[in-house]
Amino acid sequence: MRKSVSSPLIGSGRSIAVFTSGGDSQGMNAAVRAIVRMGITCGAKVYLINEGYQGMVDGGENIVEASWDDVSGILQMGGTVIGSARCKDFRERQGRLKAAFNLVTLGITNICAIGGDGSLTGANLFREEWSSLLEELVADGKISGEQMAKYSHLNIVGLVGSIDNDFCGTDMTIGADSALHRIVECVDAITTTAVSHQRAFVLEVMGRHCGYLALVTGLACGADWIFIPEHPPADGWEEKMCAKLENARSWGNRLNVVIVSEGAIDSHGNPITSQHVKDVICKRLDLDTRITVLGHVQRGGSPSAFDRLLGTRMGAEAVLALLEATPDTPAYVVSLDGNQAVRVPLMECVEKTKEVGKALAEKDFNKAANLRGRTFLGNLEIYKKLGAMSKAMKDQAAHILEKPYNIAIMNVGAPAAGMNAAVRSAVRTCLYNGYKAIVVHNGYEGLANDMIENYTWKCVANFVAAGGSILGTKRTLPSQCGFDKISEVIKKRNIHGIICIGGFEAVQGAMEVDGARNRFPELQIPLVCVPCTVSNNIPGSDLSIGTDTALNMIVQTCDRIKMSASGTKRRTFVLETMGGYCGYLATMSGLAAGADAAYIFEEEFTIKDLQKNISHLRSKMQGKIQRGLILRNEKANENFSTDFVHRLYAEEGKNVFDCRVNVLGHMQQGGVPSPFDRNYATKSAAKAAFWILDKISNNVVGGMCLCPVEDLKEATDFKHRIPVQQWWMQIRPLLRIMAHYSDETA
C-alpha cells in the first residue's frame, strides 16, 4: 500500500463501484473484499456490480450497496462471488448509455474494474465517452443538468485478473500463482504414475497466446521440453526433442514430461498441438505416451496465499487511486513492481500488451518475449540454460571437463522447501558450463569432516519437487567446526568456490569465513549465499526461498481453523507461527487468512493492546461473523507468550467467546515446495552459480555474494537475527484496516 489512510473521511460523499469481467481467476474475491472494506474505511459508499458489464447495463438489483459483512468469508473462495459475464450490449454505445444512466442514478463516479486487457479497454472507452453519454442522457430527459454537472467525470482504476499472466506492465496478475499451484499439483500426481509405467506425458496448459504458465511449470517441475508461443522451436525440433527425451532415459529416468501451452506455435506460426507432440514421441521413440489437458481445473480451487495478498494490496491501492484522482488523472491500472503495488497508466499497458500479439503475428518472437517483461525473460533465459542438458551429459559420459575447477554446493541452517530445487539448479548450471559440481552433506560440519560427494546430472533428477534438504543441513557455524579443518578439506578437494544455500547462519557463516581469510589462504575463494529460510529474515534480500511454501501451509491451516470456528460459533483461535524474531510469516499469513490481529516482535505491543483486541472480538461476536483468529510470531514478546495470550483471551472473553490455541511448529518447514519456491530457487541458484563462475574465470577472490556480506553488517540486527529495515512492515496497517477496528478499540 502506497500510504496509510490519513483521514477516515477521505471518501466522504463519494461512491465506488467494483465489478469483475472476463474469465474468472482465483484472488478476485480478495480484491473485491479489499475494495469494499478500504472504501468503507475511507468513508465512501461501495457498490457491487453483479455479472460484470451485463449487470452494469441491466442495473436494478445487479448494482447493490455493500456492507462490511457482505464480503466476510470470501477471501479463501475461488472464482468471483459477484459473477462475471460476457456482454455484447456494452460493446454498443446504446448499452454504455444504459450503464451510464444506472451509475449516475446511484451517484457512482468511481469504478474499479477487475479483469483482463479486453475488460480494462472497455472501461477506458466508457470513461472517454462519459461526458458525451451524460449529454445524451440530459437531451433525452433521463437525467437533469444538475446531475450532469455533479457527476461530470468518471474515474477508472483497473486490476488485472487473469491466470495467464499476459498483461504487460505488472510482474504478476491476480490468479496466475494459483493456476500454477493447480498445474504443479497435477504434474506431481502424474509423475508418480508415469514413473510406475515408464511413460511419457504431454500436458497441455492454458495461457492463450502467453506461455508464462507453461514456462514456469517447466522450470518448477523439471520438464524435459516445453512449447510456448514466445520461443517457438526451430525447424527439426522433432528430432531434437526426441534426442533429449532419449538421453534422459539413457541416464536412468523412468518418465518424460513435455509441457505444451495451448497457444504453442512453430517458427513459421503453425500451431503445435498436444496430439502432434504425442504422435512424434510414439512414432520416433516408441514410448507409451499419454496426453493430459488440464483445462478449467487451472481456474478453480482456493487462491494461493500470494494471490490473496496480491488481490488485497491491489484492491486497497485502487481505492486510494480512485479517491485521489482528479479530472486530469489518467485511468490507472494497479500493478505489481517487485514487492510494491504501483499505479501505471492503463492504456500504456494495454497498448503494450497488444504489441505482443502483433509481434507474434509478425513472427518477431524476440520482441514478443521482451515485451512480456523482465520476469518472463528471466524465466526463459534460465530454462534455456538448464534445459540444454544433452551437451552436458555427453561431456560427462566421455569424462570431459572443459575447465579444471571444483564448485562446492551445500545447505546451511534449518531446512526449507525449495532447498533441493536450488541444489539441482546450482549443480546443473556448473556442469553445463564445464565445471565439476561437488556437494557437501550437513553444512559446515560436513565440510570440516570431508562429507563430500561428486554429483552428476542425473544425481539431481528428482530434486526439484522434493521438500526438506536431501544433502542434509545444520545450523553449525564455521567457527564452531574449526577453520583449520575446513581449510584442510578445501585444499584436499581442490575447491575453487562455494555456493551456500541457507538461512541466517549461511550469511553469518560467510561473514566468519571472510574474517578468517587473512589467517587461512585456502579460504580466499569466492563464496556466494542463496537465501533459503521460512523465516524470511535474511538481510539484503526481500524474499527467501521456502517462505512462500510456509506461508501457504499457514494460510491453509487458518482456513480449516476458521471453518471449525464457524461451526462452533463464538470461538477464537490463537495460532503461533515460526520466524524467530521476524514477523513476516505472522503478518502476511494474517493478511492472507483474514486474521483479527498478528503480534510480532518488530511492532511492540502492551497489555492495553491485548485488551483492545479482546474488546474488538467481544464486539465482533455480537454481529454476523462470530469467530476470531489471532496470530502470534513465536518470539513476539518474551513475557506475552502464546500460552499467556491464550489464557488472557480465554479469561477476558468468558461468557462471550471461548478460546483455543494451536502451535503449528515444524509443519511450516515441511511439505512439497510451492511453484513459486521451486521457480525462485531455480533462478536464484542459477544466478549465484553464474556469478561464482564469472569470478573464477576472471580470477577474482573478493566479494562474498551479489550484495557483499561486509555491507550487510550495519543493516543487520544480529541479536535478533533480522534486518534493521523490512519492506513488508509498510503493509501492516492493511491488516488492521481489513479487520475493522473502530476508533474506540484502535
TrEMBL record:
It is an enzyme of class 2 (transferase). Substrate binds at residues 162-164, 199, 206-208, 262, 290, 296-299. Beta-D-fructose 2,6-bisphosphate binds at residues 475, 533-537, 571, 578-580, 634, 660, 666-669, 721. GO terms for biological process: canonical glycolysis; fructose 1,6-bisphosphate metabolic process; fructose 6-phosphate metabolic process. Residues 16-321, 406-691 form the Phosphofructokinase domain. Residues 406-746 are annotated as: C-terminal regulatory PFK domain 2. Signal peptide: none annotated. The keyword Transferase applies. Keywords: Allosteric enzyme, ATP-binding, Cytoplasm, Glycolysis, Kinase, Magnesium, Metal-binding, Nucleotide-binding, Transferase. Allosterically activated by ADP, AMP, or fructose 2,6-bisphosphate, and allosterically inhibited by ATP or citrate. Mg(2+) binds at residue 117. The active site is at residue 164. It holds the Pfam family PFK. It is found in: Cytoplasm. ATP binds at residues 23, 86-87, 116-119. GO terms for molecular function: 6-phosphofructokinase activity; AMP binding; ATP binding; fructose-6-phosphate binding; identical protein binding; metal ion binding; monosaccharide binding. Its cofactor is Mg(2+). Residues 1-388 are annotated as: N-terminal catalytic PFK domain 1. Pathway: Carbohydrate degradation; glycolysis; D-glyceraldehyde 3-phosphate and glycerone phosphate from D-glucose: step 3/4. NCBIfam families: 6PF1K_euk. Belongs to the phosphofructokinase type A (PFKA) family. ATP-dependent PFK group I subfamily. Eukaryotic two domain clade 'E' sub-subfamily. Catalyzes the phosphorylation of D-fructose 6-phosphate to fructose 1,6-bisphosphate by ATP, the first committing step of glycolysis. Homotetramer. This is ATP-dependent 6-phosphofructokinase. It comes from Ciona savignyi (Pacific transparent sea squirt). The lineage of its organism: Eukaryota, Metazoa, Chordata, Tunicata, Ascidiacea.
